[in-house]
Write the structure tokens for this entry.
Amino acid sequence: MLIDLFSPEEIFETGTLVGNTTEFFGNFKSKVTSVEISELYALVSKIRFLDKKNIEIVLGDSAEVLKKITSKKKKILFYLDAHSHSHKSIPLNDEINHCLKFTNSIILIDDFKVPNKPEFGFDSYEDIDLSIESYPVLNNYDLYFPNYDASQDIGQRGYVVVDTSGKLKKNIDERFPLSIYRSN
């Protein structure tokens, strides 16, 4: 599993919603910070995790909250999932650009288009796909996509893992079914 392989000091999630992924992340030793723009969902999640000392729910714009993280050497797993049709724009471009400043981190972008695997679903907003074509800054990094049958995935949603740490290239094996798409 990515978290076991990378052992992040902190997990930073964007798009809490009701906190299902946040709950999963909270099972690990890492500090978990999750940002939600909706007051209702942030409140629901804050109540849900009152007894979890390692989870913090933050109400706000994820791109703005991310800018407050200044320790670039910290090992952080960024889980970017703040793309919803209920808001006027998605913060993904700003989120990616900020997260790429961290040289010892892993970025996982959910609902992302997997090249040559149309069976994995992905999101589109105003005719812009969440894809490497729409976010060309990713072309400068090692990108990892699922390398397994989509039917094995609950929800069959695509994702991409961006490695700024250099740790994945040495550790991909059958326990972690990803394939490198593009390497610097």
